[in-house]
Amino acid sequence: KSMKTLKIGLLGLGQVGSGFYSIFEAKHKSLSQKCGAKLNLAQVAVHNLTKKRKVRFQSSLLTKNALSVVKNPEINLVIELIGGIHPAKELILTALRSGKDVITANKALLAEHGQELFREAQKNGRHLLFEASVGGGIPVIKTIREGLVGNEIDSIQAIINGTSNFILSKMTEEHLDFAEALRLARKEGFAEADPTLDIEGIDAAHKLTILASLVFGGWVPFQAIYVSGISSIRSEDIEFADEFGFKIKLLAVAKKTKSGVEAHVRPTLLSDSHVLSRVNGSNNAVLIHGDRVGDLLLCGQGAGSQPTGSAVMSDVVDIARLRASSSENPDCTISSKVLSVRNASSLLSRYYLRFHVVDRPGVLSKISFVLGEYRISISDVIQKERRDGRIVPLILLTHPTPEQSIQDAVKKIDRLAVTQGKAQVLRIEES
Fold it and tell me: Contact 270/281 with Cβ under 8 angstroms?
């Protein structure tokens, strides 16, 4: 019998689009054999028709009109790689309503409008696949959906932003301060001109929304995730953490608890023995705990045109297989029922506190007194000798304490005459 043809419309030929295109060109013939459907790239929508590009293709494929691609009755599958919220959202909705399957790598769009998009996909009986939205080339979505389908997943701990991981790794290995490490990340192409989404934890929170919603069977709202970035981390924090046997990582955490979902992204102290403390450079890693498999670690390149293009290609093959087998019922999308997310202030954890204090007797007892008022007990102390005259760092590690108590106590300590500037407060994640 003759092979069905899957006609593809590609929106966007930037970094990920070019990566996907080069993989498609090299492999579509062999992949057509594997998935039982002929893969045909019918149209590519770009912003600028005359731009010089790294990939070579027939110019007749190109159009500036993305909407014409989405509405083209010949096309069965639309791949959205434009990024951003608008017009990507409108284009995806139009594609789904026009009876087309959609693949996207757009984590910001899924995190902020995923409920609406998945509902629309379900209503129209279409597939909306998004492997490339989290973890670049790491097949984390597929692993959760297929490989771990027999598991109840109760926690995810992940390093899912390559830029911030690169910066913290450089600060640790080469004793750089934050600004120097960021400059290096820009020079090596790991940081955007405006790195805010990466260094302030927003990109990681977008990805955590997608992962947590996928594993906990309901929608974890992006707005409910506690987010804090790495721009306040100083090289001294990294050195002190090291003295206690910890590394600092921007950690995304989602856990299922009796009183709701715990979900937060923040710089965190991980003990040297924690498997994620050894994930360095721009690599990403996702540590999943399932009730049947125990701990499972997925690690690899979390960004870049080829790894992310490879994830898009895996979704194309999935849709081709589904169409070849005439399976028209869409696979499990994310349920749109909203899950309750615990307020970060109620979470219990150990903390790292760094104060800059006046170097004179009695300072530690003044600070300990305030901590005592909030029932915070200290497990370790580093008090540095006089270095640059009168102000010295004082580092405390606490026993497990509610976050609210820590925040309240630190506010009060920051107002004492013996402290200078704002304290650094970092969570310690136990293995």
Answer: no
Mean pLDDT for the chain overall: 94
Q: How many residues does the chain have?
A: 431
In sequence order, what are the residues at sequence separation of 6 or more whose Cβ sits closer than 8 angstroms to the Cβ of residue 266? 201, 226, 227, 228, 250, 251, 426, 427
Contacts of 45 (CB under 8 A, 6+ apart): 9, 10, 11, 12, 62, 63, 64, 65, 66, 68, 69
Nearest alpha-carbon partner for 41 in 71, 79, 81: 79
In sequence order, the β-bridge partners of residue 73 are none
pLDDT of residue 388: 54
User: Tokens for 138?
Assistant: 């790491």
Confidence of residue 386 (pLDDT cuts 50, 70, 90): low
Q: Round to whole Å and give the CA distance between 120 and 330.
A: 12
Paired tokens of 228? 């804090």
CB 151 within 8 A of CB 250: no
Q: Which two tokens stand for residue 6?
A: 């899957």
Q: Return the number of other C-beta atoms located less than 10 Å from residue 423's C-beta.
A: 19
* Mean pLDDT computed over 127-149: 95
Residue-level pLDDT at 387: 58
Q: In this structure, what are the phi and psi dihedrals at residue 198, rounded to the nearest 5 degrees?
A: -75, -55
Task: Report, as an integer, the average pLDDT of 207-220.
Answer: 96
Q: Which element (helix H / strand E) includes 242?
A: helix 235-243
Q: What is the pLDDT of residues 150-161, one digit of tens each?
A: 999 999 999 999
Tens digits of per-residue pLDDT, 20-70? 999 999 999 999 999 989 999 999 999 998 888 878 778 889 999 999 999
366 vs 51: CA distance, rounded Å: 64
Q: How far is it, in rounded angstroms, from Cα 89 to Cα 108?
A: 11
Q: How far apart are CA 91 and CA 49, in angstroms?
A: 19
User: What are 261-279's pLDDT values in tens digits?
Assistant: 999 999 999 999 999 999 9
* Cα–Cα dist 303/367, whole Å: 44
Is 207 noted as a catalytic residue in this protein?
yes
| Secondary structure in 3-state letters for 67-130 | HHHHHCCCCCEEEECCCCCCCHHHHHHHHHHCCCEEEECCHHHHHHHHHHHHHHHHHCCCCEEC
Q: What is the pLDDT of residues 395-422, one digit of tens each?
A: 999 999 999 999 999 999 999 999 999 9
The set of residues, in sequence order, having a beta carbon less than 8 Å from that of 52 and lying 6+ positions away, is none
Catalytic residue among 89, 107, 170, 207: 207
